[in-house]
Amino acid sequence: MSAEREVIDELDCFGSRCGASVIGSGRARSADDAVVLVRRALLAWHGRFSRFLATSELSRLNGDTRATVPVSPLMARFARAVREAGSLSGGLVDATLLRPIERAGYVGDLRQPPALATALALAPDRRPAAAAASRRWLEVEVDLAASTVTRPPGLMLDSGGLAKGLFADVLGEALATHAGFAVNCAGDLLVGGAARIERPIRVESPFDGRTLHTFELARTGVATSGIGRRSWLDGDGRPAHHLLDPSSGRPAFTGVVQATALAPSALAAEIRAKAAVLGGPRAARAWLAHGGVIVFDDGSHEVVAPPRVVTLEQLYATSSRSATMPNAAISCAVSSAAGSGREMK
Amino acid sequence: MKPSARTAEQLDARALARRHREAMRRRARRIRRSVAGFALALFAAAFLVVYVQLASGNDPALVANGAKREAAALSAASDTESSAASETPGGGEQASGESSSSGSEASSSGASAVTTSQS
User: Fold this and answer.
1) Lower CB density within 10 Å: C or N end of chain B?
2) Which residues of chain B have a CB within 8 Å of the CB of A330?
3) Alpha helix (H) ranges present in A132-225?
């Protein structure tokens, strides 16, 4: 347990709540300095990555008529993340669907979303999403050394959740030497720190905001994706939201309304959470290999326990306490923890 | 001189030479084994050091790259910080420099809880 002070800062950014919590001093100097650094970085990145700002770097990249465009190192990393997301999810998480999402009605400020239960009642039949046949994310090529992005002019990138996961990871790199930290980029979290302080991570229900489950973890990326928040009714009164089925270009109603994924990085968690929602109830669990929570249409939820990992320190402590060789501990290090189960609302 | 005519002294000399050769072979074998054993032990020790270092999550290459990326990303962020602050965000995503809550607290568990929800 660290006796050092924890400094917490929150702000409105990316159309949601963001913030940081830092314990102890480190590379970013004091904890107070560190949260200021996070705040400045988030506000700056909002200005560069928002597709709603005509002057943003992302808007300039999307509107650039050249095939190869010089970009900032962070934009290059984002473009690489677009490619990785497509590749890791088999095309389910496709950040090149900007035109379809605009056609679906997400072109500006969203008003209060309709109640999730109402939207679900109006929604079409549930079916799992599938990759687009065109797989346009494959056309995005990135040269990180030269900091350039190559893609056919007209192929536009949507920063969406991927950028937020990436931002959490970049900030986590800056805060890694502090005793403990948590970065929240609009629901995409990175928790870590040199002292491995465990932190409660609460998963909120999309229906009523209550806490569905609490993980206690010291180092992890966490992301929650779903159809409850960035949603609206289109001109025909049909429910719509920001998670599109790449195969149809229409909002996906799969039977999963929210997925929270744990992963080694926030970006990986974001990709897994989106893929779990889009994959539907049958495939969702497979996307949560590092643990998470799935919330279904009917309000029930399933907790997928993270694999139990025994660190070398714990292994050493076990072997020095016990006269026996820690074979049991070693074997449990690679085995998955049981204890998952579906719970009714 | 014919072999049959070898004297006992000559036979002793041959046996002595044979014993010398065998002793040399044994010594060479011992040295070879020592060298091989030492090399194996050295390799195992080096492997163990690298394995423990990586398994404990402290990959020096990742730390170095992370530091470089962090420097690049954060310097880029601070470069554009002023321009971002001067822009008025419009459309679907708002940014606000106003902090709704900023301060410090120390929780008994060492770290405050964080909540993940749909963004």
Assistant:
1) N
2) none
3) 160-175
